[in-house]
Design a protein that fits this description.
Strand order of the largest sheet: 1-2-4-6-7-8-9-11
Oligomer: single chain
Strand content: 25-35%
Helix content: under 10%
Radius of gyration: 18 Å
Shape: elongated
Distance between the termini: 22 Å
Number of strands: 13
Number of domains: 2
Largest sheet: 8 strands, parallel
Amino acid sequence: MIVGDDMSEKKRKIKEPKLTHLEEKSLEKCCQHGELEYGIFKEALIDSSIKIEEITIDSCIFQNINFTNVLLENVDMVDVIFENCDLSNQHFDKKLLSRVIFKNCRLTGTTFCDASLRDIQFIKCNCRYLNLSGAKVNQMLIDECGWEDTTFLETTLKEVELNNVNFERTEFIHTSLADIDFSTCDIYGTQFDSFSLKGMVIDPFQAQYIVGALGVNLKG
């Protein structure tokens, strides 16, 4: 589907994180006790390896934290904001993320395979090499992000809003993109199968990339 001038914009109603009664806390101390709830965690230098496992991170704000030495294993997240954080190569496979915001974050190589993502926002993030294979996504905003070389394989996408997203070399395989508006996005070199393309919204200029993805040559 090619977007027309008369198409009315759909307004997504993404739920914001519910954050009340928060206290500034030490990330290392809370990790030692296995509790990450109702806290504000600010810039921290984490030299030694820390493992956070088998918990739900609930009602927390993380600011300017590099999680390179923090292993998040079997962790659900509800009502969480990450701002200026590095979450590269973390694995949230088969986990629940609800009302979570990633702002100005680095998520290179992070995986959400078979995860449940609800009311999620990615704002000005580097998400290259993300993997959402098998994920179920309901209500998601991606705003001014780099999602190059990302994998969507049998991903369920509902109520997704895109604004200036770079999807170069990303793969959409057996992933319905019906009614999702890509008209502000870079889809150069993006791979689509015929199932994924049905009902997708693009602008006329992007049609050349869609045709190219299907192996058809346009005659000038």
